[in-house]
Amino acid sequence: MTVPAIPSPLAPLQLRHLETLQQAYGEVLTRLGLDGVLLYSGQPRRHFADDQEASFAAYGHFMHWTGQADLARSWLLIRPGQRPRLKIHAPDDFWHLPAYLPDEPWGEAFDIEMARDDAPPLLPAGRFAVLGDVSAALAESLGADGNPAALVGALDECRVRKSDYEIACLRDANRQAMAGHRAAREAFLAGGAELDIQLAYLSASRQRETALPYASIVGLNAHGGVLHYQHYDSVAPARRRSLLLDAGHRHRGYCADITRTWAGPDADPAFAALIEGITALQRRLIDALAPGVDYVELHQRMHRALGQLLAEQGLVHCTPEAAVNQGITRAFCPHGLGHSLGLQVHDVAGRVDGAGRPLPPPESDPALRLTRELETGMVVTMEPGLYVIPMLLAPLKERVAGRDIDWPLVERLADHGGIRIEDNLVITPSGHGNLTPAE
């Protein structure tokens, strides 16, 4: 079985991507004294005491070569100077559709075996490593090193800067996701429940729920203040104050991660003004993106700007500097400004430097997932937020900061939840490019 061939503009990009990978892997393996690496795609897990499996996505380093997120129990052998060998688990099966590959030019770059068994291929003589969700016993049986840290770190670094092919895939994932966001907004304004909004998103973005890169966050009213809200109410609320939608798309393994917030017909006017303020803040932060920018400093700049916004909108009665120093801005926005994006939503190597040395986040910002300087080819998210989260704000009442917050206004906004505006950006030699289409 085949699917339509890859669009012609993308095919040469993918072949150049594979050539670059072959060279990069060859250099890393040679430097570490390895004759090759065996990548395992992974396998879905069964629910406890059940025969149903959870949704599955292949190991990131396997997808880096194949772009196939749903190939389970498959193996890829990479050796310097030799064609990659791809063993795909495709048993005879009348219960399920066997695995298959799309009819695309990239397949010609591999030696491909469609196998009934899921056993790893026999390794030739030499020193090899095996990476992925494999046991120590399996690695020992292969005579290979299992997930050696030096190799994993070096290959993670290979994914930090994206190729032209990867950026094209990320751009297409964003295009599909934004189509879903537009439809979700219409469903919200039409009076839909969270479940209706999610179904509208899936339909317009042309994907099934198990194919999502992460579970959509569809938060109406106060639910928008739960950062990873995980439910979909099937009954619409009586009053429609707000919708926070954080939803993505996966294209050829690559993930879009977009968030939008909209005021509803029953919103307090102050909430709409805050959405405008966060949107303007996000645009200013995006304008600052360029090679050499310290992302930690950009995150701190967000907090200074949040202090200014809170003061301008009357939520605080202190200076912006005092709002930051007293922890007020972090109570209103406890998460990081953004993260790396690629084959994983929170992509690898965000908290290490180019040599693999740890770059821990500041003590004041433990949730910050990206702590390194920006480089050409990186893809990052930019997602400033502002939320009314009672459990974070309540302790401020008992401190000096309590006098500096307009608590009646906070109460008015409490059932609006929160605001987050998130785009996906690529760092270019001269600055940045926005992969997220305009609404």
Description:
Its EC number is 3.4.13.9. It holds the Pfam family Peptidase_M24. InterPro entries: Creatin/AminoP/Spt16_N, Creatinase/aminopeptidase-like, PepQ_N, Pept_M24, Peptidase_M24B_aminopep-P_CS, X-Pro_dipept-like, X_Pro_dipept. By secondary structure, the protein is α+β, with helices and mostly antiparallel strands. 33% of the residues lie in helices and 16% in strands. The strands form four sheets. It has a six-stranded mixed beta sheet. A three-stranded antiparallel beta sheet has the order 7-8-9. Strands 10-13-14 form a three-stranded antiparallel beta sheet. It is globular and about 70 Å long. The mean pLDDT is 96.
Which fold name fills CATH's third level, the topology of the largest domain?
A: Creatine Amidinohydrolase
* Number of strand segments: 14
Largest sheet: 6 strands, mixed
Coarse shape: globular
Q: Proportion of β residues?
A: 15-25%
Looking at how many chains there are and whether they match, the oligomeric state comes to: single chain
- N-to-C CA distance: 37 Å
Would you identify the regions where 5 or more consecutive residues have pLDDT less than 50? none
Number of helices: 12
Strand order of the largest sheet: 4-3-2-1-5-6
Name the CATH architecture of the largest domain. Alpha-Beta Complex
CATH superfamily of the largest domain: Creatinase/methionine aminopeptidase superfamily
Structural class: alpha+beta
Radius of gyration, taken over Cα atoms and rounded to an integer in Å = 24 Å
Number of domains: 2
Write the H/E string, N to C: HEHEEEEHEHHHEEEHHHHEEHHEEE
Average residue pLDDT:
96
- CATH class (first level) name of the largest domain: Alpha Beta
